[in-house]
Amino acid sequence: MPQQGPTREGRSHRFIEIELTRRGIVCVALLLDEQAPRTCDAVWRALPQEGDVFHAKYASNEIYTLVPDFAGGLAVPENRTVTPAEGDVLYFLVPACSRIPRGAPSPAASALGLVDLALFYDRNNLLLSPSEGFTPGTVVARIVENLDAIREAGHRLWREGTLGERLAFRRLGCRESRRDRKHGRIAGRPTGGKRS
């Protein structure tokens, strides 16, 4: 388990769990509080969040979920990129007028739109939309545990489709998932023996 310790500013490191709920695959990500303090605080306060998973068409190796805006339209230019690295977790504000995948919640349902929480499971990503141009996102976390399993699952989602899969974000150890209780695990980890 990652150790929580002080940052240069004296704050403790914060970790989140990200789970593909149908597959039961959990990874751990370190919040990048020093690089994106306001956005990380907004994400942390809003957890847990969960929604249907989608696979990006243009950004390459990205899976994401869309949730109602929890940050009051926060679009602070912190730690932004158009070339996310393998293991990066990004926050995007999706304005109410945006095009989104079929079956996703409507951004028009909220005056502020939606939040896109995205996970980049492999390398060589570029946030370039044919209709919107470059679409930078804020890097809020980096996967520090179980990237290999998430990478394999991401490639499988690309090949097999995302229907029925959900992506959940929660504070590390804040609660057991239903799947964890069913399989005798706490916070995505087995209660005994080898770690999954």
Describe this structure in words.
The chain has 196 residues and is of the alpha+beta class. It has one domain (15-190): Cyclophilin (Beta Barrel), CATH 2.40.100. It is 15% helix and 33% strand. It has helices at residues 37-46, 147-160, 178-182; strands spanning 15-20, 25-31, 49-52, 54-55, 62-68, 80-81, 88-94, 114-120, 128-129, 133-134, 137-145, 166-171, 185-186, 189-190. Strands 1, 2, 3, 4, 5, 6, 7, 8, 11 and 12 form a 10-stranded antiparallel β-sheet that branches. Strands 9-10 form a two-stranded antiparallel ribbon. The protein has a two-stranded antiparallel sheet with strand order 13-14. Mean pLDDT is 84; it is low at 174-182 and 184-196.
